[in-house]
Specification:
Helices cover 44% and strands 15% of the residues. By secondary structure, the chain is α/β, with parallel strands linked by helices.
């Protein structure tokens, strides 16, 4: 394997010049740069990035841990983070946890061992043990949490206003005349699920509609739980006239349940969802959705992480809150429900 000295000799330059071409640390004239690059190609030289990273204490690598890569929301999140990372000459290493805390802890341990410069994290559902995140921060590795913010820990984050967005969406259902509105949430160990449930309750309370516990079902943010809980809820004799699903994957499960039960949407059951899936305008009826800026959450998160690595943004945690948009479509736009038939 060729050495840096052999490249320097072939190009007729110093070892320092070769290093500057490889790292981009100091500008090199176009002529010399081309001679060095030609020598690298001819000799098949492979720079020792590991040795360089140990010397500089930077690997130019970021870690990213997401909960479910099959969910389009998180795919867009990764894409945004990757684009921002590449803009700043960072490589992004991505892990999927399947919402399992043991896999999250394992991924964080691996990323610490690989000496990544920073980590983007979508936390898995759990009770209250965030010691693995605290340990990472104590090692001097900055962490930015995306979408979900763990409680009782001081960490940077990029999220949306879940409470307000959910409240506005349920208010839309109320404005359509619905009084019997159900909700299928994700695991309430997650802050996102708790906040969306809070927004649902705020909308009902604000309209002086009683909160009925039998209309609240807790799922797992997965398609299967949306299907099972949707079928269970809609099979009741006294069923809701509208359903608010706390994420898009569960909404797909609910639509399957509606079809199997022979119900019509929105005539017999209106559906609104917290997530604007790529399928929202393709499936029939088109889904009324809270659109989250998933790509931007990932992009802004990576930008914030790079700033932290460079020592910027001060000591206090930065909490970026991005706006959402309610997109009203066919799944909630049937004939208005009359109060006399809606019940409480």
């Amino acid at each position: 394997m060729a050495t840096v000295k052999e490249v320097a000799k072939r190009a007729g330059v110093s070892v320092g010049t070769v290093s500057n071409v490889v790292t981009g640390a100091t500008p090199v004239s176009p002529k010399r740069r081309e001679r060095v690059l030609a020598a690298i190609r001819e000799l098949g030289y492979q720079p020792n990035h590991i040795a360089r990273s140990l010397k500089l204490r930077h690997t130019q690598m970021l870690g990213m841990i997401v909960s479910d890569i099959t969910n389009p929301f998180f795919s867009h999140l990764v894409r945004g983070a990757e684009d921002a990372a590449l803009k700043h000459n960072y490589l992004l290493l991505t892990f999927n946890t399947d919402d399992r805390i043991e896999r999250e802890k394992q991924a964080l341990a691996v990323l610490r061992q690989r000496r990544v410069d920073g980590i983007l994290l979508v936390v898995a559902p759990q009770s209250d043990d965030y010691s693995h995140i605290s340990e990472t921060l104590e090692m001097g590795i900055p962490v930015v949490c995306l979408d979900r913010v763990p409680p009782k820990i001081q960490v940077d984050s990029v999220t949306v206003d879940n409470v307000r967005a959910a409240r506005d969406c349920v208010r839309h259902l109320i404005e359509r005349g619905h009084r019997k509105i159900g909700i299928i949430t994700g695991s309430t160990t997650l802050q996102t699920a708790r906040e969306r449930l809070q927004g649902y309750k705020k909308a009902l309370t604000g309209a002086q509609i009683p909160i009925r516990q039998e209309f609240i079902r807790e799922g797992t943010f997965r398609t299967s739980s949306g299907y099972e809980l949707g079928k269970e809820l809609l099979s009741e004799r006294d069923r809701p006239t509208a359903l608010f699903c706390s994420n898009g994957m569960m909404a797909l499960g609910v639509l399957k349940a509606i079809e199997e039960l022979g119900l019509r949407c929105p005539e017999e059951i209106a559906v609104a969802v917290f997530d604007d899936l790529p399928l929202a305008e393709i499936v029939r009826p088109h889904l009324t959705s809270v659109a989250q800026p998933a790509y931007l959450v990932g992009y802004k998160g990576a930008e914030l992480l790079v700033q932290r690595i460079a020592g910027g943004k001060g000591k206090k945690p930065v909490r970026l809150l991005l706006p959402t948009e309610l997109k009203i479509r066919e799944s909630t736009l049937g004939n208005k429900i009359k109060d006399s038939h809606a019940g409480a």
